[in-house]
Amino acid sequence: MRLSSGATVNAWTFNGQFPGPELRVHQGDLVEVKLINKLPKEGVTLHWHGLDVPNAEDGVAGVTQNAVQPGESFTYRFVVKNQPGTYWYHSHQASQEAVEKGLFGALIVLPRDDSFTGKDIPVLAHSWPTKEGSYQQAFDTFDTLKRLAVQLGTPVRLRLINTDSLPINFVLSGTSFKVIAIDGTDLHAPTELTRQRLLVAAGGRYDIQFTMPDTAVSLDWLQKSSKVGLLLSRDGTGNAPALADGPVFNPATYGSPQQTPFSLSSHFDKEFSLVLDDMIGFYDGKMQSVWPINGKVFPNTPMLMVHEGDLVKVSFVNRSWMDHPMHLHGHHMLVLSYNGRPVTGSPWWVDTLNIAPGESYEVAFRADNLGI
Ligand SMILES: [Cu+2]
Questions:
Q1: In angstroms, rounded to a whole number, what is the distance separating the alpha carbons of residues 319 and 278?
Q2: Distance, CA 6 to ligand 1 centroid (Å)?
Q3: CA of 90 to the centre of ligand 1 (A)
Q4: pLDDT tens for residues 77-102?
Q5: Do 175 and 210 contact (CB within 8 A), yes or no?
Q6: Between 91 and which of 35, 44, 102, 151 could a Cys-Cys bridge form, CB atoms 3.0 to 4.6 Å apart?
Q7: What's this model's pTM, rounded to 2 decimal places?
Q8: Does 313 share its domain with 362?
């Protein structure tokens, strides 16, 4: 398949498209998706990343179903809960390779009474594997500057989706903006930001909103020697504004507090502590760097067993030198504290939390979705 520059990448496609088709649904909808596998050799599934679906529809090969083999099909059916926001879907059989090659797409849940009339722009940030054996960063299939014409005064919502396996730093330049949602949950009383770097976890999503000014606005994927970007201007032409890079945005202190169903002072039915480390170990038949949790690597890592209805607290400590996105299926976690300090801003709900080297977090969730 070809990127906008003409560079070719090795891709697997949904319906011949890469990324896959954008799925837009409304909260409360009964959604049915038929997956038909026409790949010659590889099994596939569909996982609805961030959507709290019944366990049997979660699409994790080897856990909630077997992979759908070549020539087979599988129909997913679920009711979209009350969670309007930005999600994505991807194959979850050998997902590293399948996602890398393009078996993913945006999944947008709109509110029942959707009244937004501005520009709604999903941005799927992805590193495509090139034929030369390296990676090409792109927004969707744009590895060159993507230009869009937007009229002055138009509300613009950018849905930033990180489809890679490492964090991505985004910078928005040319206007102030608000981060209005993280991982499909609206933030409470977000304030205007400028010159902030947005670090989105692998698999995570940030929704940002601004009103289109008279001059150009650009979204950049922060990295050296990249021409990847999105440029919005009145007629789609013109130069990008100066890069408005700055300190990393901290959701723990952004927005204002609001009532939550539980907090740091709640009684928890179960508490777990997970220490992420690195060490040299024997794995997959060779000595290599491994990433243990509490000193063990999969399949010897601790199993977290809880009962339906339990209020569960989990502490994460990252003593390794690698970023680790901790992702919970079927539930959203409320972040309670960051590096020992309670969250003071908006309630911060996540399904995917980046734990950077040296960081610690406490999160909690209500176990209200039975499954493995
Ligand atoms: Cu997921």
A1: 8
A2: 32
A3: 9
A4: 999 988 999 999 999 999 899 999 99
A5: yes
A6: 44
A7: 0.97
A8: yes
3-state secondary structure the chain: CECCCCCEECCCCECCECCCCCEEEECCCEEEEEEECCCCCCCECCEEECCCCCHHHCCCECCCECCECCCCEEEEEEECCCCCEEEEEECCCCHHHHHHCCCEEEEEEECCCCCCCCEEEEEEEEEEEECCCCEEEEECCECCEEEEECCCCCEEEEEEEECCCCCEEEEEECCCEEEEEECCEECCCCCCECCCEEEECCCCEEEEEEECCCCCEEEEECCCCCCCEEEEECCCCCCCCCCCCCCECCHHHCCCCCCCCCCCCCCCCEEEEEEECCEEEEECCEEEEECCECCECCCCCCCCCCCCCCEEEEEEEECCCCCEEEECCCCCEEEEEECCEECCCCCCEECEEEECCCCEEEEEEECCCCCC
Is residue 14, in this structure, part of any structural domain at all? no
Range of 95's domain? 23-110
In one-letter notation, the amino acid at residue 19 is P
* 372: in domain: no
The domain tally of the chain equals 3
In angstroms, what is the span from residue 89 Cα to ligand 1's centroid? 8
Residue type, 41: K
> How far, in Å, from the CA of 181 to the mean position of ligand 1?
18
289 with 320, same domain: the answer is yes
70 CA to centre of ligand 1 in angstroms: 23
Residues 73 and 29 in one domain: yes
pLDDT 10s digits, 4-18? 999 999 899 999 999
Residues 123 and 241 occupy one common structural domain? yes
Q: What is the CATH number of the domain that holds 127?
A: 2.60.40.420
Residue 2 lies in a domain: no
Burial of 85 (0-12, 13-18, 19+ CB in 10 A): buried
